Amino acid sequence: MNRRDCLLGMTAGLAAGLLPPVAWAATTASHAVVGAAWRGPKPTDPQFAGVLEADWEARSLTIRYAVPLPTRPHGLIAETDGGLTICGVRPGAWILRCDGAGKVVRQIRLDGEGESRLGGHAVVSADGARLYTTETDFATGRGRIGVRERTSLKKLDEWDTQGRDPHQLILDGEGHLLVANGGVPRTREDRKYDLDRMSSSLARLDVANGKLLGQWRLDDARLSLRHMAWNRNPAEAGALLGIAMQAEHAAATERAAAPVLAVFDGERLAIPTRANDGVGYSGDIAPAHRGGFVLSSNQAGMAQLWHPDIPEKLQPVVKIQEAYALAPWHGPGRGGGVVIATALGLGRWHPEAAPLLLPWPQPMALDNHWVLMAER
Asked: What is the structure's pLDDT at 28?
């Protein structure tokens, strides 16, 4: 697929007409700054994390800084100084923080912390004092939350996630933790096994002591809850948590028909639509368009919009090879768009703005996630 075909695919989603048209806003920020992780085009190429700057008017994408990493990264947290905190992906053995110039200011390895290894994601506490990391204790197979001091990254405590294979975690409106227990039994080498014992769940943990405050499951045990995003501030009434899912059924036909989105309204975890991507694998999720979500499906080469006003549908908005990492993008001033990593470059989508694809500044393959750091 060439760059022109990609742009046509991004435009085609806007023509589907499932959502009402909206007026073009007056101004759009000319730059977007994104924290990202990547490697070279070959799977064996070195891994990096750093900051990319998109100049929409000049139609250019540049690398502000790049930090070499010990192994493959996954989740990233944007720091106020322009730096990043990066977690190694399962079985991750390191956490690294760099400043806004790309200088490594803190790095730890988990080798001295017993049998726990990282699940790939972390989140900062509401007061900014702690960092919570998803982990697996390979001595027992149980999921853990590592409670860490924010600056030193030293582990202060460890809580049970009430499940196995915890992946992403996120704060709710009260500052407590919501944890996606993916439920997949894995070896230390990250091989899946005994999938008939899967038990995926969403767990709510008290940040005062790790106590279980609630737990929710879907009827289909082979749907693994993976990545999460709020459609608005979780403290607002009616906020919804979108959860991207990955099917682990034995039969390819079952995986191909599996739903890719679950929604949690604070009391109930439900599947709003059986519409899917034909693969059963949603890689990332981001808030978009007035209370909706965009989900990426890299294996299907598309991103789709779900909106609570039309809950039975998924609307394709981007059709591009390796559509994967997502981050919310304000676009023409009122929010609702996304920036999306693709095989060919950084793309943007917004219902009120023209689509655009900026080629990578060098041969590179983006990892699963990135984070919008600034718009100006």
From this structure: 62
The SS3 assignment for 8 reads: helix
pLDDT at 22 over 90: no
**Within 13 A of 123's CA, how many CA atoms are on the CB side?**
20
The first and second tokens of residue 257, run together, are: 């028909």
Residue 288's identity, in one-letter code, is A
pLDDT digits (tens, 9 = 90+) for 292-318: 999 999 999 999 999 999 999 999 999
C-alpha distances in Å from residue 155, one per residue of 97, 119, 148, 265: 15, 15, 4, 32
Query: Cα–Cα distance between 144 and 124 in angstroms, integer?
Result: 16
Residue 18 has pLDDT above 80, yes or no: no
Q: How many CB atoms lie within 10 A of CB 213?
A: 15
Query: Where do we find the tokens 């079952």?
Result: 254
For the record, the structure tokens of 18 come out as 């499932």
The answer to whether the beta carbons of residues 340 and 355 sit under 8 Å apart is no
CB-based contacts of 178, cutoff 8 Å, min separation 6: 169, 170, 171, 172, 202, 203, 204, 228, 241, 264
Q: 3-state class of 7 per DSSP?
A: helix
Taking the complete model, does pTM exceed 0.70, yes or no? yes
Mean pLDDT of 110-121: 85
What is the chain's Cα-based Rg?
19
Judged against a pLDDT cut of 60, whether residue 37 lies above it is answered with yes
Give the separation between CA 369 and CA 75, rounded to whole angstroms.
6
Q: Which residues sit opposite 53 in a β-bridge?
A: 33, 62
Q: What are phi and psi of 56, to 5 degrees?
A: -65, -40
Q: Which amino acid is located at 204 in the chain?
A: R
